[in-house]
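Encode chain A's predicted structure.
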Amino acid sequence: MHQKIFHAFNQICRAHAIRGRVLEIGATPDASTLLSLPALARATEKIGINKAGASRYGNFTILSGDANAMTCFPDRHFDAVLSNSVLEHDPFFWRSLTEMRRVARPRALIVIGAPGYGQGRHEKVIRRWLAILPRWLHPADGWALQHSTLTLGLHNYPGDYYRFSEQAFREVFLEGLERTTLRSILNPPRFIGSGIMP
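Encoded structure for chain A:
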């Protein structure tokens, strides 16, 4: 995980002073997992879930399971639910979103990170390239390049299905949550959205 992503999640969790139970979707048994965030030092319980299998690392347990149907957890159980770089690998990501809301208690923090696309800093670079390249290298006056966007390359863990827009974060991922925030970091963009369960 990129340090800027780790830092952004840590800032969000610190601002919400998480003290209770925390669930990470897609947790890994190493120091880069979100359950290792310094801001979660006072959490009473840290649990991860991952399709790759059960494991233990530091002071938390990772259960084997699918975020599309987290039957191992009761309703309204967690004070924070975190997920980073998981939903793009989930062919049925909307099921995982539903489950995240189901297991989150009222007033719980939900934080989701995923690769995105959108207008960004690359547009100036593309315009500069178009100005110096011969016209025959960019048909239709470079229309396709001018109207394109950078996205994170394919990374099959195990599949790679989606990239999301800011609109998808606001209207789908954070739908129904309160006090929502959305950050765009890195280039190509990674979006980190957060909100509070009503």
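The longest strand covers residues 104-115.
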